[in-house]
């Protein structure tokens, strides 16, 4: 939700989500299309099976991180009246995912809050998305009592006291409606983080008693002026907006909220900064020499890594003949994959064919370019349209496809992968269910569908979430963070989205999260030099690269 000039929330038109998903998936498709076009020519299948005899794969080859198991339980409350209830519920899911890093979250609407309920939790998150929501008097009283830490995001702070003078007296600040000045950034811990251009200006507060109120972050307006964006008063942390929708921006003010969860649920956390790198779209048509060079470069730098593998490559619809090439038919690629594992690589299964049948989904019908577990079209101007589950989608269908992919990998002598990544990150709830049963963790960004969707394209109701630490998502799966995107190309952009510098800038912004993970992926066909440059910049920022299984 965003505020109008008079401070009344109105629904954010989710065009920004549409654009973010379009850009993200377009990047995936363009990068992989280039990768397939530059792969080495396919030679006839060799007469021998890959020789993996005598190899003992290290435990890191397939190890997933443990599921979050903290003891800091939390209560997530969302506004549950008004026409935008489905959006409020989705925000509750996003907040609960972040809270899961610290312990078990419990989520329900604010209207059913019971007197004293928050006292049984380490902390409470309240999501104020509806300015017309009437808060239960028991909730207001319990917040005023200050016995349990509360992270309050967005609207309705003015309901905490009976009048603004009471708020000034009780908390040392007064609430302000939305400031009409454009506010493109939020300043926090010495960094300036972005705000979406269409987000409108947030509400805020005026500090009347600096001895009692600590300003944690500030809204930076277009004219250079600043107003408090996040403050602490006693056990209450107030944030001027429900900033849970980064729309794919790795340097969004959403990172402030991710870090404030530590204040709420684990304030004694020691600061450390870890990093992950994943080599993307390894497949039977990959250049085995390039895979070895990438593994050698990372090994020389002392950098453990992961790689995403799909075991069956299918040509696009226009290829003549249209081939299907299995990993078992390319022993040189199998041996290169084993070589990667021996040099610190963790294998991530990345679908079965990374495409869907004999149709364009949405581009070529070929592996790497197309989606596999979600139906996607394009508009005449190239924008992606997320239509929904693929024909025949069900838990049984997805399970069969995933088990076929596992069998193709293990049939070569390689170990069974325990981590999964959905191609282009898109999946149905049935596919999430199947993956949750077959794998210890996923390594992607979960897609959530708002309950407000009824029919037609899903774009305006589809949310993707990244987190700067391991979480349990709304489907019950442990999710390894990927929050910086990837390097686009060739040609590689000099600056802006998809550039090497954008990856580094995103990592720099992520330093505001006291125990955060900066995670990106990279296509091997771009060569080792660019990857080594990024690795060097990360290490200069103080990041330590770790295997995903050690998070």
Which properties best describe this structure?
single chain, 551 residues, alpha/beta, TIM Barrel, Rossmann fold, nine-stranded mixed β-sheet, 26% helix, globular, disordered N terminus
3D structure, described in words:
By secondary structure, this protein is an alpha/beta fold. The chain has two domains: 15-39 and 62-66 and 278-476, TIM Barrel (Alpha-Beta Barrel), CATH 3.20.20; 74-265, Rossmann fold (3-Layer(aba) Sandwich), CATH 3.40.50. It is built from eleven helices and 28 strands. It has helices spanning 15-37, 85-99, 137-145, 164-171, 254-265, 288-300, 331-342, 395-410, 429-438, 500-510, 528-540; strands at 2-3, 9-10, 74-78, 105-109, 123-128, 150-154, 173-176, 185-188, 191-194, 204-207, 213-220, 226-233, 236-239, 272-282, 305-309, 312-314, 324-326, 345-349, 375-378, 384-388, 419-420, 441-442, 447-449, 462-464, 471-472, 478-479, 515-522, 544-545. It has a nine-stranded mixed sheet with strand order 4-3-5-6-13-12-11-8-9, with helices on one face. A hairpin with a 2-residue loop joins strand 8 and strand 9 (191-194). Helix 6 packs parallel to helix 7 (331-342) and helix 10 (500-510) runs parallel beside helix 11. The protein is globular, with a radius of gyration of 24 Å. Residues 1-47 have low confidence and may be disordered.
Give the helix/strand layout.
Elements: E1 2-3, E2 9-10, H1 15-37, E3 74-78, H2 85-99, E4 105-109, E5 123-128, H3 137-145, E6 150-154, H4 164-171, E7 173-176, E8 185-188, E9 191-194, E10 204-207, E11 213-220, E12 226-233, E13 236-239, H5 254-265, E14 272-282, H6 288-300, E15 305-309, E16 312-314, E17 324-326, H7 331-342, E18 345-349, E19 375-378, E20 384-388, H8 395-410, E21 419-420, H9 429-438, E22 441-442, E23 447-449, E24 462-464, E25 471-472, E26 478-479, H10 500-510, E27 515-522, H11 528-540, E28 544-545
Parallel strand pairs: 3-4, 3-5, 5-6, 6-13, 14-15, 14-27, 14-28, 15-18, 21-22
Antiparallel strand pairs: 1-2, 7-10, 8-9, 8-11, 11-12, 12-13, 16-17, 19-20, 23-24, 25-26
């Amino acid at each position: 939700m965003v505020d109008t000039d008079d401070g009344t929330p109105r629904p954010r038109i989710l065009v920004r989500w549409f654009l973010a998903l379009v850009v993200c998936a377009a990047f995936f498709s363009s990068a992989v299309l280039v990768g397939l076009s530059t792969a080495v020519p396919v030679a006839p299948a060799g007469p021998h099976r890959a020789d993996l005899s005598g190899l003992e794969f290290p435990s890191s080859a397939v190890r997933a991180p443990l599921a979050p198991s903290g003891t800091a339980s939390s209560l997530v409350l969302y506004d549950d009246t008004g026409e935008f209830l489905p959006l409020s519920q989705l925000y509750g899911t996003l907040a609960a995912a972040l809270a899961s890093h610290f312990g078990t979250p419990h989520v329900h609407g604010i209207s059913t809050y019971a007197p004293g309920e928050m006292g049984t939790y380490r902390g409470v998150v309240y999501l104020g998305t509806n300015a017309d929501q009437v808060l239960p008097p028991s909730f207001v009283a319990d917040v005023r009592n200050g016995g349990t830490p509360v992270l309050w995001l967005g609207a309705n702070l003015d309901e905490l006291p009976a009048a603004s003078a009471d708020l000034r007296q009780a908390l040392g600040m007064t609430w302000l409606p939305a400031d009409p000045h454009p506010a493109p950034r939020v300043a926090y811990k010495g960094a300036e983080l972005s705000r979406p251009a269409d987000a409108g200006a947030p509400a805020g507060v005026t500090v009347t008693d600096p001895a009692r109120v600590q300003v944690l972050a500030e809204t930076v307006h277009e004219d250079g002026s600043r107003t408090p964006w996040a403050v602490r008063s006693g056990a209450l942390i107030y944030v001027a907006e429900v900033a849970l929708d980064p729309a794919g921006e790795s340097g969004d003010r959403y990172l402030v909220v991710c870090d404030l969860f530590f204040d709420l649920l684990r304030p004694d956390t020691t600061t450390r900064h870890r990093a992950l790198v994943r080599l993307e779209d390894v497949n039977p048509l990959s250049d085995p020499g390039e895979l070895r060079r990438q593994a050698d470069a990372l090994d020389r730098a002392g950098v453990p890594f992961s790689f995403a593998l799909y075991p069956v490559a299918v040509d696009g619809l226009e290829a003549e003949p249209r081939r299907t090439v299995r990993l078992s038919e390319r022993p040189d690629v199998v041996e290169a994959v084993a070589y990667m594992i021996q040099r610190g690589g963790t294998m991530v299964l990345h679908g079965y064919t990374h495409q869907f049948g004999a149709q364009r989904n949405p581009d070529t019908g070929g592996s790497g370019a197309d989606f596999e577990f979600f139906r996607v079209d394009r508009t005449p101007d190239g924008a992606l349209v997320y239509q929904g589950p693929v024909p025949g989608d069900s838990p049984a269908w997805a399970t069969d496809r995933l088990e076929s992919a596992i069998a193709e990998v293990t049939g070569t002598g390689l170990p069974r992968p325990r981590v999964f990544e959905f191609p282009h990150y898109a999946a149905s709830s049935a596919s999430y269910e199947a993956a949750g049963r077959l794998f210890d963790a996923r390594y992607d960004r979960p897609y959530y569908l708002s309950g407000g969707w009824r029919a037609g394209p899903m774009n305006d109701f589809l949310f993707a979430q990244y987190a700067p630490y391991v979480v349990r998502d709304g489907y019950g799966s442990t999710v390894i963070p990927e929050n910086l995107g990837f390097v686009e190309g060739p040609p590689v952009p000099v600056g802006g989205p998809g550039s090497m510098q954008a990856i580094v800038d995103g990592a720099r912004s992520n330093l505001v999260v006291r125990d955060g993970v900066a995670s990106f992926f990279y296509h091997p066909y771009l060569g080792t030099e660019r990857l080594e440059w990024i690795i060097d910049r990360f290490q200069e920022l103080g990041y330590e690269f770790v295997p995903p299984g050690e998070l």
